[in-house]
Design brief:
By secondary structure, the protein is an alpha/beta fold. It has a 5-stranded parallel β-sheet with strand order 2-3-1-4-8, with helices on both faces. A 3-stranded antiparallel β-sheet has the order 6-5-7. α1 crosses α9 and α6 packs across α7. The structure holds adenosine-5'-diphosphate and zinc ion.
């Protein structure tokens, strides 16, 4: 199974990705997680990408394509993959298409998680991420938000630096301009599956799985 997950920031890509990859035992390739780890470890790639991520801008395509190449060459993606956060613009989508052609493989589906802009802003400002395991939570789900720890591993929950309102606004602008056109692009390639991203997490997962 080879999948791409599309959706605005905060649409629930990371959460849904985790469940879908568990179900199909495929590898989860999240460019956002990869970049955040590189930045945390202060690698060369992390230093190149850091300011773009901090400002909510797209990291240059060349850096992203290198990441994806490495991931596809790795053994782990042999059984299939789910791309989360990639491609992010038409150029990346075309380069990705060429890469898959060269490898002689095809995408099975592109799932678009549809959520309104108001809901997105509400979600992102209350989102927290586990410093140790990247688990995604929402502080509205905890009785005591201040002292909450990661339910998966007990790690500290932190607010992503790019989940500040000013950066969220920039990321949504970038999404509208750069990423949203991919919905039509993949629809034209007969790969698009559009699902409603509102409601309980499990319901959203069910909606996606129904099509796969
Ligand atoms: P979200 O979908 O919540 O905005 P991600 O975790 O997917 O967050 O990405 C965080 C940031 O990492 C983006 O705002 C961008 O700076 C960078 N990034 C991630 N994926 C890509 C990509 N495919 N191309 C360019 N930049 C990317
Ligand atoms: Zn954790």
């Amino acid at each position: 199974m080879r999948l791409v997950l599309l959706g605005a920031p905060g649409a629930g890509k990371g959460t849904q990705a985790k469940k879908i990859v568990q179900r199909f035992k495929i590898s989860h390739i999240s460019t956002g997680n990869i970049l955040r780890n590189e930045i945390k470890n202060d690698t060369e790639l992390g230093r190149k990408a850091g300011n773009f991520v901090k400002e909510g801008k797209l990291v240059p395509d060349e850096l992203i394509i290198e990441i994806i190449k490495k991931e596809l060459e790795g053994k782990q993606s042999d059984k299939g993959f789910l791309m989360d956060g990639f491609p992010r613009n038409l150029k990346q989508a075309k380069m990705f298409g060429d890469m898959l052609d060269l490898l002689g493989i095809k995408l099975d589906s592109v799932i678009n998680i549809d959520v309104s802009k108001d809901e997105i802003i509400k979600r992102l400002t209350s989102r927290r991420i586990c410093h140790s395991c990247n688990n995604i939570c929402n502080i509205n789900n905890f009785k005591d938000a201040e002292s909450a720890k990661c339910p998966e591993c007990g790690g500290d929950l932190i607010k992503r630096k790019d989940d500040e309102l000013k950066v969220i606004t920039e990321r949504l602008n970038v999404y509208e301009k750069e990423t949203k056109p991919l919905i039509d692009y993949y629809r034209e390639h007969n790969l698009l599956v559009n699902i409603d991203g509102t409601g309980m997490e499990n319901q959203v997962t069910e909606r996606a799985l129904k099509h796969l």
